[in-house]
């Protein structure tokens, strides 16, 4: 199975490859595609839309059996105070679409204020942690959990949920 993941970020490719490790013959390639949403998606709806757009755009970009889109965003979560880092994945073969989410991680208020004021989370985290390209390393997930999870693991969880309809017979 030839799989394209709609990003050149190595973390997203590695997470997809890891989620599909048990699928015989699966090969994963990075494909640069547009998300069609803002650089910093805000809310579940925009984040899911970005993941779905990326997955569809992968299929349009080449000869892939499955397109995977991953999108990170921030959202207010009903019933919980604060702003949360969220992750969504979508998988499509052109006919069906599967979706899966990663963990929700509450942002410290000092970071949430900056994101609400219009800054993107990645550069804010780079600034707070005094590193470059945290999104291609541990990610905010690693920093926010004391390295209990990392960005690849969080994204792998989302991809695993999204590919469910393509790797099991439990979905109709």
Write a structural description:
Helix 1 packs across helix 6 (151-162). A hairpin with a 4-residue loop joins strand 4 (83-92) and strand 5. The radius of gyration is 15 Å and the shape is globular. The protein has one domain (2-105, 150-167): Maf protein. By secondary structure, the chain is an alpha/beta fold. The chain has seven helices and six strands; from the N terminus they run E-H-E-H-E-E-E-E-H-H-H-H-H. Strands 1, 2, 3, 4, 5 and 6 form a six-stranded mixed sheet that branches. The model has no long low-confidence stretch (mean pLDDT 93).
State the gist of this model:
The chain is an alpha/beta fold and 172 residues long.
Find the count of extended strands (DSSP E, 2+ residues): 6
Q: What's the main sheet like?
A: 6 strands, mixed
Could you state the oligomeric state of the chains shown? single chain
Q: What's the CATH class, please? A: Alpha Beta
Structural class: alpha/beta
CATH T-level topology? Maf protein
Q: Strand-residue fraction? A: 15-25%
Helix content: 25-40%
How many helices does DSSP assign? 7
| Low-confidence segments | none
CATH-derived architecture: Alpha-Beta Complex
User: What series of H and E elements makes up the topology?
Assistant: EHEHEEEEHHHHH
